Every structure is written in C-alpha cells, then in structure tokens.
Amino acid sequence: MRLASFVFLFVFLSLQCVFAQNKAHVLNADTDVYGSADFDSATIGTVDPDETFLVSKKTYGEFYKVKFKDGTIGYIPDTEVYIEGVGTVRETPFRGDDLDKKAKRAKREEDEESPEDDTENPNINYKGVTFSLINFHEETMGGNQVADLQAFGFRFQPLQGNYQSGLAYDLMVAPKAPDYYEEKTGAKTSGAIFWGSAGISNVSALNSNTSFRYGAGPFLRYSYFTIKDAPLRPQSTYNLQDLTVGLDFQAGIMLHSRFVTIDLGLRYFWDKESYGGFGVAFLF
C-alpha cells in the first residue's frame, strides 16, 4: 500500500510540475494537436478556441505541452496558444520554415492515406511469363477430340489508365501433341501447338491493388505433329500440320503488388472447334 501511495503521489506531483494549472485556449479554429513536439510528427486531433485545456509552464522547442479534460496529452505550437492571465508568449511572425514543415507533413500524410494509387494506372506496360491450362478441342480422326493441354508463354499487357484501352498480345506453346493422337493411332506422337493473339484490352480499377481486364481480338493457331511407327504402317512417319485463324475473348483479375502483378484470367477461343482455358501470368 505504501508503494502504491508513493507511486500515485510521485505521478501526481510530476503532473503538477509539468502542468502549471494555467488554463489556455487556441487562437484559431481546427488547430492541430501533435503527438510530439515536432511539426513532422503525426497529429492526434484538432482543437477549437472555445475549448480550454491545461498548459505546461515551459515550452518544448516551439510547442507547449497540453492536457485536455479527457486526459489526452499533446503538443500545440506556442504561437497558437493563449494562456489565461498571461496572453500569448510572442506574436505570430511569418515563419517560412514552419510553413515548409507543415506542408511537408501534410504531403506525407496525404501520401500515407493514398499511396501510389494504382486506380489511375498511368501508362504502365506490363510484360511477363504465363502458364495456362487449355481444354483443347479438335475435329480430327472421325470426330471431335478433346484433350487437356499445358501451355507456356509470354504476355504484354498495357495499362493506359483507368477505363482505358490498349493493345495487348501474347504467345503460347503447348509442347506436346494431344493424347488422343497416340490413343487413336497407337503410334508414337510428338509435336506442339502455338497460339499468337493480339487484341484490345480494357482495364477497370476495382481498388488501388486490383484491376479487372477484358478484351478480344484475333489469334493464329499453328500445330505440327509427327506420328511414327503406327501399328498398321510400322517404320512409317506422318507429319500433320494445321493453321487456323479465330477470335480470342479474355477476362481477368490483376492483383498488383510492389514487385509483381499476378494476372488470373479466363479465355475463350472461337476456333474451328471452340474451347476454353484458364491462365496465370506473372507480370513486371
């Protein structure tokens, strides 16, 4: 109990030393109250002339330490404080340094509240690698054949600003023949399928870190397959080639971070046989 009483007394006397029981108010409306005696420190609130508070005996640099009725302690510039029975310590001069400090602090707070707002997306060109899963359809060997393919590629995606359009393009390759060639023929198969597309891409910002894109455009698809040692024709080799033109429809969500943008997208290929796919791109 003695220790608790001593601590209480010490705190009480300390506050008495800091605050001289002088009441004061500010001269101007919406005067900033700082968290420390520094114009670069964060503000903890504002105060109007009709509100009184206790003020410290001494100044802390260019600030008074103040205490409000709710117990909040902060710092107010000395030129803004009027002490009852004393007045102002000094008249308010034009202090360019203080104005510069306030301007810098306001700019910093504005930047913290809205850091590089990607909702504007000013003239940014992204490019990077892609990985896609494509549910490929093809009319061949007497019917509509279907196979799931893995494709790797490169993508160029412009962001010309929110709600703006730009020319995007990408290249993809699936480095193996669809499984149905080997299943249907019983032969060894190899080959690849190439896609190249270009089209108008529209971008809409959902928030500072997320954008929605959509667009459409033409594409070329070229396939080259080699079939060897078919059971009915051993030691024979067949080369199959195909070139088509179609339309490519895309939509995706772009997740922006400081170092990379991750693009999650869906695609619909309007080809001889239409098919779809899902892809992820890592753009820089």
Number of domains: 2
Q: For the residues shown, what is the average pLDDT?
A: 82
Number of strands: 15
Distance between the termini: 65 Å
* Biggest pleated-sheet summary: 8 strands, antiparallel, barrel
CA-atom Rg in angstroms: 35 Å
- Note the run of SSEs as H and E: HEEEEEEEHEEEHEEEEE
Shape designation: rod-shaped
CATH topology of the largest domain: Porin
Share of helix among residues?
A: 10-25%
Give the strand line-up of the largest sheet.
8-9-10-11-12-13-14-15
Beta content: over 45%
CATH architectural name of the largest domain: Beta Barrel
CATH class of the largest domain: Mainly Beta
Number of H- or I-type helical stretches: 3
- pLDDT < 50 stretches: 13-20, 91-97, 114-122
| Class by SSE composition | mainly beta
Overview of this structure, please?
15% of the residues lie in helices and 59% in strands. By secondary structure, it is mainly beta. It folds into 2 domains: 17-113, SH3 type barrels, CATH 2.30.30; 124-283, Porin (Beta Barrel). The longest helix has 18 residues, at 96-113. It is rod-shaped. The model is unreliable at 13-20, 91-97 and 114-122 (pLDDT under 50).
Short description:
The chain is mostly beta strands.
Helices, strands, pairings?
Elements: H1 2-18, E1 19-26, E2 31-34, E3 43-47, E4 53-60, E5 63-67, E6 73-77, E7 81-83, H2 96-113, E8 124-140, E9 143-159, E10 164-174, H3 179-185, E11 188-207, E12 210-230, E13 233-256, E14 261-270, E15 275-283
Keywords:
284 residues, mainly beta, SH3 type barrels, Porin, eight-stranded antiparallel beta barrel, five-stranded antiparallel beta sheet, 3 helices, 15% helix, rod-shaped
